[in-house]
Design brief:
Length: 185
């Protein structure tokens, strides 16, 4: 009888711990889903379109919360759903053109409303001559996004304007490798 009571007590203790563990796992999963959906997410860079500033295999933190209360700004590096395949591909690009602007690209330069865009985020000597003559008149909630490595970037020059709803968030912090940790400009 004492043995059965001891087994029963152990079973109750085990069931109690199991319930606590399952409850805490569900709470953590719910918090993780909320954070991933509304606050931020991780993204691993693939490809050379943002070189020399960002490189393949670097891991970054993408902030989503800032764009719930504000809009992307010129120069922001964003992670976005690729307009040609929004359910499967994500790209990282820099916002160049904002809603309502006229963006003209010619002879390696970008003009915003006929004013030459100063691209201080591109290191001196960055090749931009691959830009051919193109022009975009942006509507509401439309952006132009380009890779920093203009010669090797699949960007607005190829697939057109970037709709606002395809922007996931702003690339804010480099997390990996440790030697590269810092904010993204």
């Amino acid at each position: 009888m004492v043995v059965n009571a001891l087994r029963y007590e152990r079973f109750i203790l085990f069931a109690s711990y199991s319930f606590e563990l399952a409850r805490n796992a569900l709470i953590l999963a719910a918090i993780g889903i909320i954070l991933h959906t509304f606050v931020g997410t991780l993204f691993v860079i693939e490809g050379s379109s943002m070189e020399p500033n960002l490189h393949t295999a670097q891991s970054i933190l993408v902030s989503k919360i800032g764009y719930f209360v504000g809009d992307p700004q010129r120069g922001d590096v964003v992670v976005m759903k690729f307009p040609g395949d929004p359910f499967h591909k994500k790209y990282i690009k820099r916002i160049i053109g904002l809603p309502g602007e006229q963006i003209t690209m010619r002879e390696g330069n970008v003009f915003v409303n006929d004013v030459l865009l100063s691209e201080a985020y591109l290191p001196a000597g960055t090749e931009t001559s691959s830009i051919k003559h193109q022009q975009f008149q942006l509507g509401p909630d439309e952006f132009v996004a380009l890779g920093d490595n203009r010669a090797l970037s699949n960007d607005s020059r190829i697939w057109g304007v970037l709709p606002r709803q395809f922007i996931i968030g702003r690339a804010s912090v480099l997390l990996w490798p440790p030697s590269d940790i810092g904010t993204i400009q």
